[in-house]
Amino acid sequence: MQSIDHFDLRSFDLNLLVAFDALMQERSVTRAAARLKVGQPAMSHTLSTLRVLLQDELFVRIGTVMQPTPRAAALAGPVRAALAQMQTALHATPAFDPATEQRTIRLGFSSEVELLLIPELTAALRRAAPGLRLISQPAERDQVHRLLDEGALDLAVGCFEAEVQRHKSQFLFEQALSCVFNPNQVPVKAPIALTDYLALPQVLVTFTNSLQGCFAAALDEIGTELNVVAASSEFLSVLATVAASPVITTIPARMARLYGPRFGLTLSPVPLKLRMPAVSMVWPLQLDRDAASVWLRTLVAEILHTTERTACRAVAG
């Protein structure tokens, strides 16, 4: 592709080319002015400017018609082609077809949201968009905005917020918690009493050195500690432990409804008021109107809504 001397073009008002093309089509200053919706004096001034800049008369009046000079005739084709190409580019809508799109999408997640979303999202993409490939990774709240800014992530789903002007966000759902246990291992029934909940040994999910896990801040807020005997960074590891050991766990309610029954576990409301952050989607502002990003965000929201309804029906059943 030929390089462009931007400084050279900067010294030339490109609107003059629009006026030149109108003059070529109309062969009349009056009609060209009407086409551009400007006054005839303004159009005459524009023609004078073109003559000075291009050092050519460009149009010579012969009778009632302005005939182009050889210089104008030579310019007419390239100028019209360039204007047509610019008009097409400015009004073009980027085409997006999920069935044929080829790209890799990078998703960032916090805590359990990846396990809630990725299985169904992968299945949906294989059906509708087999050319889209996913790379998912954990994203901490203090890192996610930098990762979005650097292009390391296209979309983040979790306990995140958009930073003003640089990102966009969409609320997905409020988080709730559920107590999960194996009734064959722990001699309690749902709903579990507060005294039992505080006394029974718990295994929790943690991403830090705190045994109180992901709920440390919420527990500190109400001045309570749980009887935690083990902690793991993996939700499925925690659920498997609860299935095999005389312990209980506290996990996000959506996770409990979706995976608890698969491990033969019983769900119970948490007898404490623990405030948890909401789950949202966050994406870079430059992808806000990208057709593929819009399609993916719609799909993510639909999947989370559908899996929640399915999980609720399974628990009720």
Provide a descriptive summary of the structure in words.
The mean pLDDT is 88. It contains twelve helices and twelve strands. The protein is rod-shaped and about 105 Å long. With 317 residues, it is α/β, with parallel strands linked by helices. Helix 3 crosses helix 4. The chain has three domains: 6-91, Winged helix-like DNA-binding domain superfamily/Winged helix DNA-binding domain (Arc Repressor Mutant, subunit A); 103-175 and 278-316, Periplasmic binding protein-like II (D-Maltodextrin-Binding Protein, domain 2), CATH 3.40.190; 177-269, D-Maltodextrin-Binding Protein, domain 2. The strands form four sheets. It has a five-stranded mixed β-sheet. Strands 10-7-11 form a three-stranded antiparallel β-sheet. Strands 1-2 form a two-stranded antiparallel ribbon.
Fourth CATH level, the homologous superfamily of the largest domain: Periplasmic binding protein-like II
Structure annotation, total helices: 12
Distance between the termini: 64 Å
What is the total number of structural domains? 3
C-alpha Rg, in Å? 32 Å
Tell me the series of helices and strands, N- to C-terminal: HHHHEEHEHEHEEEHEHEHEHEEH
Shape: rod-shaped
Fold-level CATH name of the largest domain = D-Maltodextrin-Binding Protein, domain 2
Name of the top-level CATH class of the largest domain:
Alpha Beta
What's the rounded overall pLDDT mean? 88
Low-confidence stretches: none
> How are the strands of the biggest sheet laid out side by side?
4-3-5-12-6
What level of helicity do the residues show?
40-55%
Q: Strand pairing plus helix content: what structural class? A: alpha/beta
Number of strands: 12
Strand proportion: 15-25%
Based on the structure given, which CATH architecture of the largest domain is correct? 3-Layer(aba) Sandwich
Sheet with the most strands? 5 strands, mixed
